[in-house]
Predict the 3D structure of the following.
Amino acid sequence: MSRIALVDDDRNILTSVSMTLEAEGFEVETFNDGQSALDAFNRRLPDMAVLDIKMPRMDGMDLLQRLRQKTTMPVIFLTSKDDEIDEVLGLRMGADDYVKKPFSQRLLVERIRALLRRQEAIATDEVAITEETKVMERGNLRMDPLRHAVAWKGNDVSLTVTEFLLLQALAQRPGFVKSRDQLMDVAYDDQVYVDDRTIDSHIKRLRKKMRTADNEFSAIETLYGIGYRYNEE
């Protein structure tokens, strides 16, 4: 049974969504502010967190920033209907996905299940079934799907589930272009729609993380209007 942390200052959302998730077989913990959630996460991390952005004491952005210092667990943001800035910023800070308020609870359940399936695929090495070996090496890059481990020039890089899958998809075939639609298929289930901005934000975050290991990292090339390409160095 997967443990989902639901963090929102709207008690109606906490009550209704937690009931839905529990009916779907999840174990749910609820928190009405970011600080309370962080205190609980410091004791025991959930399998996934669903975070509202605007909350008292500590908002969702601050909470995500604290979480990404120690964990790559999947995170979904709940964003305001018209606040695209929050969506983009959240993705660049390391969120895996976002759902706009007001939202369909069925949609949220589908997004949660999709992320958990992707995480499980990485943990069981299913994402590497097309590779001859479990560990992939491309020039300075080394990826171990079984351990969810990435290294660049021997330096470890911590990636979220989405970032890992995108990098793996690009690095599997150096020199070949992957369109945004192809990358969406890799990172998201068919029933989950995301737009181009979501993929672009993940790629920007991925590049930023790789540059923490090497500030001259340039292996991921943007082909404007087409997609992205991994160039082996």
The mean pLDDT is 84. The chain has eight helices and twelve strands. The first helix runs from residue 11 to 23.
